[in-house]
Amino acid sequence: MSNRYPYLHNAMWPGLVGKGPDSEPPIDLDTMIELTAAASVNGVKFDGVDLFLSLPHTDIDSSDDDLKRLADKLAARNLRAGSLVAPVWPPTGGGSAMGSESERAAFLTQVKKSCRIGQKLRDLGIRKYGIIRIDSADSPAHWAEDPAGNTKKIADTFRQAGDIAESFGERLAAEGEICWAGMHSWRRNVELLEMVGRPKTVGFQADMAHTMLFTMGFNAPEDAIPGDLHEAYATMARALRPWLFDFHVAQNDGTVKGSGSHDKTGRHCPPNDPNGKLDVVRDSGAWLRGDDGQPTRAVQHLCWDGCMFPNAMMMDSHTWNDVLGMMIKVRDAHGWN
After folding, report:
1. Could you tell me if residue 2 is inside a domain?
2. Whole-number mean pLDDT of the chain?
3. Is a pLDDT exceeding 70 seen at residue 285?
4. Mean pLDDT value of segment 49-70
5. Tally of structural domains, the chain
6. The domain that contains 59 carries what CATH number?
7. CA 237 to chain centroid
8. Whether pLDDT at 87 is above 90
9. How confident is the model at residue 187 (pLDDT cuts 50, 70, 90)?
10. In a domain, 285, yes or no
11. CA–CA separation, 229 vs 137, rounded Å?
12. C-alpha span between 264 and 258 (Å, rounded)
């Protein structure tokens, strides 16, 4: 029998991230929703979407009426909202989590606005699970100028963000990715989360493509894990799994990719890419099963993140059927009823 849980979601932000004047044009939210709703594999469909809280998708300053229209749009397609990406970066109104007092205040303002939207979508009945996603909104190169001091600043900002999240009944997940200050290696992520010290409120978002590069030591050669990739991946995941709040199924070919305004990071590949280094179904288990081999049930939904996929690939319905098919396999292998 196929497992029913966790739920299966598609990320909407690949329509925006890596797009722009020096890349490809963005894909609007309505189109991303329609592509998601149309996907089907043996009668199984996506359960929901994860949202990017920035224009031209979902305005961080959306009114209650705007959010009601969004909820109605999702409900009409039998989709629900899950995790929400807070626009904490300077170009989207935020600021560095290790920056000046005003920059950190801007970061926290964006977290508060995102939590308000999360709460409102819960009140509207369209969102029953999911987290608010954050990162440090700064670069590893800038962080390296004062590693200890900057990590302390990020932890303090994240701790204040945790206070905000708790006041809205939300949780925060910090996305581990080689392009984020103080979060650019598996060891630095563990160090930061331990320093924040809010394990019930501030946790980790694991994207399979991004975290794979932790094992290879991109941007942190001292933290590379030598040897067989599968074993190295399991070692890395074991260190971060206690903090896991949110999980992205993904494939990676072992290279880095940047596009548009997005810095180079772990490359997302199609689920069946012949150059993919991961056994997606097997390696998902490193995150979704505990040391006892049992499903941890730590996440209520899985998400697919196709960041920086070419537009032609994203507009092809076969892409989303392939993605959905792979996610069903992951759920059948590591989910529950």
Report:
1. no
2. 95
3. yes
4. 98
5. 1
6. 3.20.20.150
7. 15
8. yes
9. very high
10. yes
11. 29
12. 4
